[in-house]
Amino acid sequence: MRKSIFIVLAVSLILVFGVAMLTGCGGGGSSSDPASSATPAAPDGGGSSPAPAASGREATPTPSAPATPQTPAAPALSGKYYLVDATIEGDVVGEADFFWMEMDSNYLDFIDDTHFEAYMMGDYADGTYQHNGGVIILTLFGDDFEVRIDGDKLTMDMEEDGIFVYDKERRQPDPSAVSSGGDALAEAIAWWSGDWYGSWYVFSASEAYDHLVGEPWDVYVHIEVGPNGKGTVYAWDDDIVLGTVEIEIDISDGSPGVAKSTGGEFFDTPIKAYNNYWWIDTSDGGHYDDNLIIIDEEFVDEDMNRIDYILRLRPWGMRWDPEYDVMPPYYDWYLSVYDRPMLDVLRDYGTLHSALQ
């Protein structure tokens, strides 16, 4: 009887152990652990594993690298931009202060795609520029400066000299400058054109021209201006031709405007944007009347010899006031002939400008 009980227990243990072995090895059964799933072997023949079957859902595309943003090219520049604002040594300077700082006429004039002319704080210069992405690099006075463009405004960083803002719209003609009698340019042309008489003298000079410093001489000026505002100034005294200067009338601030040289010569030396330039502003001498031209300029010859000179002119046929004027040396003679046309008088005396004979 005991032997039968032991046999039954042994058989039961064998059955229990066998079931446990089958369950633990997963033979034929499924496992709840996904990692236990067998990976199908590659087929014989050394080929690559077959592609997985489509799941019915499109594959997500691999994102491409973002495109490098392109810096927009700086727009082309043309025409004049006038100084409207400046920051110098940390101080903001506005147009109200420009006059006494001699900055009221500063401008950049872009002539073509690579060249410009500048008038800055009393100095005239030719410069070049090039595009560099979204900015402009100006080469001026031997240095490079970065210029940012915002619409019609240019911001020029001149480093130690300051930051300067130029605007193309600042000096558009003022409608109030046009009178009911006609066009402002026509009025300006009529004001400048004709014959002028006065005095000229040298008040400072280098050694080569030191002999010219002293008393004034009489001077005659004939101005011809065409309907486009461009013309020529002929200047001479009794003995020599002083110059033949090409000008253009600028009425941006109203009539009679400013006459600016565009070419020609003075003292047999070519007039350029950076040398012997004329900027004839009638406001320089118009503090007590409207019939006075003052040409206050510097002349430098090819050997860098210099003179500083002034021409003071009134329309031929007008009397002078000794209380205000630097009287021409031969003013008494002038009073005897000023009722006749100037060119006729000087032709009779044989002292006419050679280009007008």
SSE topology sketch:
Layout: H1 2-25, E1 79-88, E2 91-94, H2 95-98, E3 107-110, E4 115-120, E5 123-132, E6 135-140, E7 143-150, E8 153-157, E9 163-167, H3 184-192, E10 194-205, E11 217-225, E12 230-236, E13 241-250, E14 258-266, E15 269-270, E16 279-281, E17 293-300, E18 306-315, H4 331-337, H5 342-349
Antiparallel strand pairs: 1-2, 1-3, 1-9, 3-4, 4-5, 5-6, 6-7, 7-8, 8-9, 10-11, 10-18, 11-12, 12-13, 13-14, 14-15, 14-16, 17-18
CATH fold title of the largest domain: Lipocalin
General shape: elongated
Termini separation comes to 163 Å
Tally the structural domains: 2
User: What's the architecture of the largest domain, going by CATH?
Assistant: Beta Barrel
CATH class category label of the largest domain:
Mainly Beta
Cα gyration radius (Å): 44 Å
What percentage of the residues does DSSP assign to strands (E)?
35-45%
Could you give a short description of this structure?
The protein is α+β, with helices and mostly antiparallel strands and 357 residues long. Helix content is 15%, strand content 36%.
